[in-house]
Amino acid sequence: MMSDWIEETLHPDFRFKMKVEEVLFEGRSENQHVAVVNNKTFGRTLYLDGVLQTSERDEFIYHEMLTHVPILSHGSVRDILIIGGGDGGMLEEALKHQTIERATMVEIDPSVVEMCRRHLPSISKGAFDDPRVDLVFADGVDFVKTTDKRFDVVIIDSTDPIGPGEVLFTESFYAAAKGVLKDGGILVTQNGVPFVQSDELAQTMRLFKPLFADATCYLATVPGYVGGPMAFGFGSDALRHRQLSLETLEARFADAAIDVRYYTPAVHLAAFALPGYVLKTIEGPEDA
Ligand code: SAM
Questions:
Q1: Burial (Cβ within 10 Å: 0-12, 13-18, ≥19) of residue 239
Q2: Does residue 4 carry a catalytic annotation?
Q3: How far does CA 273 lie from the centroid of its chain?
Q4: Residue among 2, 18, 4, 1 nearest 223 (CA)
Q5: Can you name the residues that pair with 34 across neighbouring β-strands?
Q6: Residue 112 Cα, ligand 1 centroid: separation in angstroms?
Q7: Which of 60, 64, 93, 229 could form a disulfide with 219 if both were Cys (CB 3.0 to 4.6 A apart)?
């Protein structure tokens, strides 16, 4: 059983520890070790294979930035695909947009959904029961290679490139994910904390550049993901999505009439203003 501290195992030479007030669940699914613990500062927190995934306290930052930035950039999303997202937070955030007609979520591990529905209901807030949802239990890489559905926005809300998540950072996956985008579609990814996981972001950007006319990333600081701001990969063939004025974004945000705690149109635009070390990370050798 777990000690009274849980130590994250993501980084080889530094650790993030969290005092465990209560273990709500701990067990192994066929894909990974799953734990839900309660901590005084972060609230209920999900760990997969010893890596912090999301917490009640800071999930709003991550989920708002990985949904409203692509959705409001696009401006007329009807069909959205979420790969991963087992806690339901991404689904909940995306479904705030009434323009969305279908939300397909492809999660490899049913037990993550089951545990999060049971122990982290404040994150999914009933999203799994929304009639617009198609919940598919499958490997995301198989889904994008076989589906005949097409999407305006594809969100890769995966674990880090270890275990089942590893395939979601590969060239063949990104090419297949692009293949399910409608014209003008946007692909966004969870791409780690570049200060301590720069290779992951560099690799995604290297793979995005041949695929998309516009390949970049944007940033937001999520307290539970230690090491500084985290990066979200952004790929699209429609350059217009990142040429929006603040006024246009403000109008779209007002029309969307969504209840948020982090996202604002100004934060959206500012998130793409990258500091030098991140620019250097995403510029491939040919840019140097
Ligand atoms: N916010 C988290 C982060 O940034 O690390 C991600 C949250 S979510 C819990 C990650 C989900 O991706 C998990 O539920 C995991 O089971 C799922 N997942 C991992 N590999 C997958 C794959 N190949 N296909 C579909 N889902 C996958």
A1: exposed
A2: no
A3: 19
A4: 18
A5: 27, 48
A6: 9
A7: 229
Helix (H) or strand (E) holding 251: helix 246-256
Q: Which of 87, 152, 157, 160 is catalytic?
A: 157
The H or E element spanning position 156 is: strand 151-157
Does the model's pTM come out above 0.90?
yes
Q: Does the CB atom of residue 115 touch ligand 1 within 6 A?
A: no
Tell me: the pLDDT tens digits for 157-216? Answer: 999 998 899 999 999 999 999 999 999 999 999 999 999 999 999 999 999 999 999 999
* Residue 72 confidence (pLDDT) above 90: yes
Q: Are strands 43-48 and 51-55 parallel, antiparallel or unpaired?
A: antiparallel
Mean pLDDT of the region 76-84: 98
What sections of 120-170 are H helices per DSSP?
Answer: 121-124, 140-146
- Structural domains present in the chain: 5-53 (2.30.140.10), 59-282 (3.40.50.150)
Calculate what percentage of the chain has a pLDDT beyond 90.
96
> Which are the contacts of 159, defined by CB distance < 8 A and separation ≥ 6?
32, 48, 49, 51, 53, 84, 165
For ligand 1, say whether the CB of 87 is within 6 Å of any of its atoms: yes
CB of 161 shorter than 6 A to ligand 1: no
Closest residue by CA, ligand 1 atom 20: 165
Q: Is 84 in the pocket of ligand 1 (CB under 6 A)?
A: yes
Q: For the chain, how big is the Rg over CA atoms in Å?
A: 18
By CB atoms closer than 10 A (0-12, 13-18, 19+), residue 50 is middle
Mean pLDDT of 256-262: 98
Q: Name the residue at shortest CA distance from atom 19 of ligand 1.
A: 165
Whether the per-residue pLDDT at 261 is higher than 80: the answer is: yes
